[in-house]
User: Which sequence fits this backbone?
């Protein structure tokens, strides 16, 4: 399949295709006239990348999932933990807006930071 067909089919830009080729996600064949011809494997990889990019993942995360599919669960846990941390921080902001003192918030923030640090240490000790 040629570039314009892939762009139309997957909604990717020419620049994105060049970038994914540069980052060695895909390996299109160069024809004599200079056109790139994409294999079924390249198309599947581009569809994979496109889906995960739309879900908000960066290329490092996508490569990790592509190389090791079980890492998706780890990534999902990490993202869920980040969402939980952001909710807790938002609650602290709400408490500040309602008149809580800075000392109260700083104490609660210190607890939250220790919890985050514990998660990081556990993840390093027990990956996956």
Assistant:
């Amino acid at each position: 399949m040629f570039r314009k067909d892939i762009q139309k089919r997957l909604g990717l830009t020419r620049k994105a295709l060049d970038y994914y080729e540069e980052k060695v996600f895909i390996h299109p064949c160069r024809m004599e006239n200079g056109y790139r011809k994409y294999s079924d494997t390249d198309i599947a990889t581009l569809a994979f990348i496109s889906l995960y990019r739309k879900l908000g993942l960066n290329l490092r995360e996508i490569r990790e999932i592509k190389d090791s599919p079980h890492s998706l669960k780890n990534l999902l846990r990490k993202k869920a933990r980040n969402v939980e941390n952001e909710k807790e921080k938002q609650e602290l902001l709400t408490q500040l807006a309602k008149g809580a003192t800075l000392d109260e918030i700083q104490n609660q923030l210190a607890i939250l930071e220790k919890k985050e640090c514990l998660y990081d240490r556990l993840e390093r000790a027990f990956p996956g």
About this structure: Residues 71-97 form the longest helix (27 residues). Residues 63 and 88 are 30 Å apart (CA to CA).
